[in-house]
Recover the amino acids of this structure.
């Protein structure tokens, strides 16, 4: 049996990790989430009804929450964070403080767990943004790029900075207190139940409601990774001895696509033809973003199972009757 703690388990990636791990009835999973962004929807309700899943509504910035937790977890998946452009622009203080304090608290807690096998820290491709802007980087981008922050006075810097800080906590606490850790940097993960503050559900709405859509940055490209593949990569990254102390890109380098072509695939999936009005590039938007996944593939011998068309089809099947019920 494995005892597993998942912070942020009511959110997008956290829910799917918890759901996958719960399929093994020998696992016991504890989810901690303050529901600031996570949702108690039908899927999550079905998850926490399982006998091997426990849900605690709690705030990880409050040290008292850890009194309610056991001290013998085998694995910790730390995904709780304040994310999203709206929060970055309107609540940069919370992005910095909540993401930093919650990570410090979870590592202080990890110090008390004698036989912890691994703590996995959820980072992001946003950590590469400053280096790309000021110095340029190779694309696809590997994990060994030296990280540089963008404008320190900008609200938009706070999210990437909070994740760089979290990565530093992993190494600092890991090395000093012998806490086994793995850092994963997610790249454009998509799928069911990801909210509406994402390019793919935003395009679902635009295409549903319009015959002609405006498309900024039409030649910019991103490499999208379907949630099922991201979950498999995450769980294997957390459990493998080969990944201890490593930083790993999680994404699908084979699925890089320009925004213009993404619209064409989505419209095909939705069965609706649209005219695309190409707008100028969005200021500050990287022309390309694509992970180099050589390292994780070599360590884990992974096999991406979902191509972009099939992933978008599965995603739209879930969203098709929910496009009028929008939330972040």
């Amino acid at each position: 049996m494995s005892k597993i703690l998942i912070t942020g388990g009511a959110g997008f990636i956290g829910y799917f990790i918890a759901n996958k791990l719960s399929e093994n009835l020998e696992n016991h999973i504890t989810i901690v989430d303050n529901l600031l962004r996570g949702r108690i929807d039908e899927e999550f309700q079905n998850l926490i009804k399982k006998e091997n899943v426990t849900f605690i509504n709690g705030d990880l910035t409050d040290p008292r929450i850890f009194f309610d937790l056991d001290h013998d977890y085998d694995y910790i998946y730390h995904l709780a964070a304040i994310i999203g452009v709206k929060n970055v622009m309107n609540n940069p203080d919370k992005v910095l403080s909540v993401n930093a304090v919650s990570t410090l608290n979870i590592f202080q807690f990890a110090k008390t767990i004698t036989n912890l096998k691994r703590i996995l820290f959820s980072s992001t491709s946003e950590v590469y943004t400053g280096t790309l802007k000021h110095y340029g980087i190779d694309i696809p981008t590997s994990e060994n790029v030296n990280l540089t922050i963008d404008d320190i006075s900008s609200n938009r810097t706070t999210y990437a900075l909070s994740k760089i800080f979290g990565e530093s906590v992993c190494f600092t606490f890991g090395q000093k207190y012998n806490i086994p850790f793995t850092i994963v940097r997610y790249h454009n993960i998509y799928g069911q139940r990801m909210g509406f503050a994402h390019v793919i559900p935003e395009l679902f709405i635009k295409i549903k409601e319009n015959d002609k859509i405006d498309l900024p940055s039409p030649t910019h490209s991103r490499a999208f990774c379907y949630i099922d593949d991201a979950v498999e990569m995450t769980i294997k990254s957390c459990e493998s001895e080969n990944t201890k102390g490593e930083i790993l890109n999680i994404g699908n380098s084979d699925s890089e696509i320009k925004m213009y072509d993404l619209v064409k695939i989505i419209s095909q999936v939705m069965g609706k033809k649209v005219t695309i009005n190409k707008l100028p590039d969005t200021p500050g938007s990287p022309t390309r973003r694509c992970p180099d996944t050589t390292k994780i593939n070599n360590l884990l011998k992974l096999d991406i199972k979902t191509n972009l068309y099939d992933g978008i089809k599965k995603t739209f099947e879930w969203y098709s009757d929910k496009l009028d019920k929008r939330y972040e």
